[in-house]
Design a protein that fits this description.
Distance between the termini: 171 Å
Strand content: under 5%
Radius of gyration: 67 Å
InterPro entries: EXOC6/Sec15, EXOC6/Sec15_C, EXOC6/Sec15_C_dom1, EXOC6_Sec15_N, EXOC6PINT-1/Sec15/Tip20_C_dom2
Organism: Propithecus coquereli (Coquerel's sifaka)
Protein name: Exocyst complex component
Keywords: Coiled coil, Exocytosis, Transport
Helix content: over 70%
Family: Belongs to the SEC15 family.
Largest sheet: 2 strands, antiparallel
């Protein structure tokens, strides 16, 4: 319906146009009719116009005919004119026809050219459209190619950013193409591939730092050692700021690298290139050994993919596992220092990496996580050190371990980890170190005491004299005045022991270095350890020497002399400790050295051993005694064994000249008392059931020899007859029996000034019983036969009275 209306409208419009053209033809001059005719030929309704024209011509013919009929003559004239016009029209027609033919001939090539131009224009539009579409597709293809290249070169984070641009910017513009749909379908797979590859890189990174943690830690500890050495060189000037600055600068370097390789630049993020580091850096950081780019890439990738929490949990879980492996010490770690060093290197390397991750990433690890790991590490490390250090028996190894622990603590302290517990544990190891030192010095003292010749040190020149005095603080003006050769009163073990005590103090001082202890604490530690050395180690060594079975009196005497001089040297040891610790002895709570007590105890033990040794020698001589208790002959000299015993005692006491007078006097008195007691026991022993007056006379000669020895003053310092009192019991008993002075004894018994005050009635009764039996069986008093009966009665009466005295004495 609409088409019909449109056709009708067009027909009316065409008709109106034709009508206008006809009017122009009718009204226009013949010379100007060309443009009007041309407009007819340019139009598409040429046939209809001709029809209109023919119709108009017929109309005009009818009008002409009417006019002619009305104006015939005029008509004839007009016909004539028209005939003329027809000829001209024919010519015009021919010309037009010819022109048209020529025009058609000439226009055919033009039409062909126009057709070709039309085709070219069509192709040009197609090409232009194709170029436009390709221009839309090319960026997509270029981005996809770039994505593939980045995947191939393992630049996964830039690849992920490219993938985002491709997905959200480029693909929507050409989404109707089939290849774009393939790309869209492949995008999730690419994301998973990037995710998996980056995770694989992270795993390789974790495995790598697990293997190389010891190298990282070794570098960090070397850096800390170099810094500490530098601090010592500049006389302990404050270096805390520079340490912090060095650490901060290291982080700035890493942060700068991260910024330059941020996702915006489409470069790998977080790559640390050691070669690009500034050559002016004084000490390269331990972090420069590690390429952290896999961590940064994986972190960025997972963050972009919305799985950051998954990545953080995985990273922390894996690092916790690695921490437990690192903190597990090898079973033989205590055998060598290298075992401890490798253990510490791994721990330091682990926490250096974590500290760097903390400061160069945002939230991958946090301070709470690091603190938790450090608390675990600290407890496990301290437990391992307590266990393994307890196996160390070498003080040098313990000292090296202490220095290593201090370096370990200082290294981690630079990175901000609290290490107070490590220093507290070092105080525990200090006690163990002291014990190992004591064991070592016990062997040193034992060797010194065993190898000593226990004789005064001889010197033959001033140089030798000064050497000894330089080793031991000794001053004696009388000895200095004596000509060479001369002898020091002490043996070689005195300067050796003195110097070893000083060496022990130095060894204790070495352990206290770098423990951040005050001078008072160091002084107290040294004094307590030295006291243990003196009161336990050295004391035991001296006691063992003194208690040896084969120790001689000469050695014991020399030990007493030596300990006397060592006791005097204790004040110099006090001064020595004061000089190295700068803590005055008068300071409150300062521990005093117990060396004086130690050497006094050793000297007293040696004295007791001398007394015991002398008594044993006396017993050995007494075992040689061979009395004939039944002899009737009266001897005229002392027994040979006793003469030898007295000679031995004289020579022995001659050696005691260098001993303190009291010691020599006590030894001499003890020997005489023991001799007297032993002789009394020999006389009264149960095996001697009978004895004669002759045997008693011989025994009396031996006692007189002992009394003569006592009177001779073998050791100076005794008052007159003091030493003889040791034999007073024997003397009074023998006088009573030899003089047969029973009346005086019985009459004066119990009086404070009686003649036989020291004679015990029981002792007298025992000896009298032995003589009574002899009288009965051997007729002891045969030469006094006339008085035999009276004598026997007297003996019985005396025995009876002695029994009475014994009974009353017990009651």
């Amino acid at each position: 319906m609409e088409r019909g209306k449109m056709a009708e409208a067009e027909s009316l419009e065409t008709a109106a146009e034709h009508e206008r053209i006809l009017r122009e033809i009718e009204s226009t001059d013949t010379a100007c009719i060309g443009p009007t005719l041309r407009s007819v030929y340019d139009g598409e309704e040429h046939g209809r116009f001709m029809e209109k024209l023919e119709t108009r011509i017929r109309n005009h013919d009818r009008e002409i005919e009417k006019m002619c009929n009305f104006h015939y003559q005029g008509f004839v004239d007009s016909i004539t004119e028209l005939l003329k016009v027809r000829g001209e029209a024919q010519k015009l027609k021919n010309q037009v026809t010819d022109t048209n033919r020529k025009l058609q001939h000439e226009g055919k090539e033009l039409v062909i050219a126009m057709e070709e131009l039309k085709q070219c224009r069509l192709q040009q539009r197609n090409i232009s459209a194709t170029v436009d579409k390709l221009m839309l597709c090319l960026p997509v293809l270029e981005m996809y190619s770039k994505l593939r290249d980045q995947m191939k070169t393992k630049r996964h984070y830039p690849a992920l950013k490219t993938l985002e641009h491709l997905e959200h910017t480029y693909l929507p513009q050409v989404s109707h193409y089939r290849f774009c749909k393939v790309m869209v379908d492949n995008i999730p797979k690419l994301r998973e591939e990037i995710k998996d590859v980056s995770m694989s890189d992270l795993k390789d990174f974790l495995e790598s730092i697990r293997k190389h943690s010891d190298k990282i830690g070794e570098t960090a500890m070397k850096q800390a050692q170099q810094q500490r050495n530098l601090d010592n060189i500049v006389l302990q000037q404050p270096r805390i700021g520079s340490k912090r600055k060095s650490k901060k600068d290291a982080y700035i370097i890493f942060d700068t690298e991260i910024e330059s390789t941020s996702p915006k630049s489409e470069q790998d993020s977080g790559i640390l290139d050691v070669e690009d580091e500034d050559d002016d850096e004084e000490v390269p950081g331990a972090q420069d050994l590690v390429d952290f780019s896999p961590v940064y890439r994986c972190l960025h990738i997972y963050s972009v993919l919305g799985a950051r929490e998954t990545f953080e949990n995985y990273y922390r879980k894996q690092r916790r596992k690695q921490a437990r492996l690192v903190l597990q010490p090898p079973s033989n770690m205590h055998e060598t220092l290298d075992g401890y060093r490798k253990y510490f290197n791994q721990i330091v390397g682990f926490f250096v990496v974590e500290d760097h991750i903390l400061h160069t990433t945002q939230g991958l690890v946090n301070k709470a996580y690091i603190d938790e790991l450090w608390e675990m590490a600290l407890s496990k490390t301290i437990a391992a050190l307590r266990t393994h250090s307890s196996y160390c028996s070498d003080p040098n190894l313990v000292l090296d371990l202490k220095n290593l622990i201090v370096l370990f603590a200082d290294t981690l302290q630079v990175y901000g980890f609290p290490v107070n517990q490590l220093f507290d544990m070092l105080l525990e190891i200090r006690d163990q170190y002291s014990e190992t030192l004591l064991k070592k010095w016990a062997g040193i003292f034992r060797n010194i005491l065993d190898s000593d010749n226990y004789s005064p040190i001889p010197v033959t020149s001033e140089e030798m004299y000064k050497k000894v005095v330089g080793q031991f603080p000794f001053q004696d003006t009388e000895l200095e005045k004596q000509p060479f050769p001369k002898k020091f009163p002490f043996s070689e073990f005195v300067p050796k022991v003195y110097n070893q005590i000083k060496e022990f103090i130095y060894a204790c001082l070495k352990f206290s270095e770098d423990l951040h202890l005050s001078s008072t604490e160091v002084d107290d530690m040294i004094r307590k350890s030295t006291n243990l050395l003196l009161t336990r180690t050295l004391s035991n060594s001296l006691q063992n020497v003194i208690k040896r079975k084969n120790i001689g009196l000469t050695e014991l005497v020399q030990i007493i002399i030596n300990t006397t001089h060592l006791e005097k040297s204790c004040k110099y040891l006090e001064e020595f400790i004061t000089n190295i610790t700068n803590v005055l002895p008068e300071t409150v709570h300062t521990t005093k050295l117990y060396g004086t007590t130690t050497f006094k105890d050793a000297r007293h033990a040696a004295e007791e051993e001398i007394y015991t040794n002398l008594n044993q020698k006396i017993d050995q001589f007494l075992q040689l005694a061979d009395y004939d208790w039944m002899t009737g002959d009266l001897g005229n000299k002392a027994s040979d064994y006793l003469v030898d015993l007295i000679a031995f005692l004289r020579s022995t006491f001659a050696v005691f000249t260098h001993l303190p007078g009291k010691v020599a006097q006590t030894a001499c008195m003890s020997a005489c008392k023991h001799l007297a007691t032993s002789l009394m026991q020999l006389l009264l022993e149960a095996e001697v059931r009978q004895l004669t007056l002759g045997a008693l006379q011989q025994f009396n000669l031996d006692v007189r020899e002992c009394e003569q020895f006592a009177r001779s003053g073998p050791v100076p310092g005794f008052q007159e007859d003091t030493l003889q009192l040791a034999f007073i019991d024997l003397r009074q008993l023998l006088d009573l029996f030899i003089q047969w002075d029973w009346s005086t004894y019985l009459a004066d018994y119990g009086q404070p000034n009686c003649k036989y005050l020291r004679v015990n009635p029981k002792t007298a009764l025992t000896l009298l019983e032995k003589m009574k039996d002899t009288s009965r069986k051997n007729n002891m008093f045969a030469q006094f036969r006339k008085n035999e009966r009276d004598k026997q009665k007297l003996i019985d009466a005396v025995a009876k009275q002695l029994r009475g005295l014994t009974s009353s004495h017990h009651s």
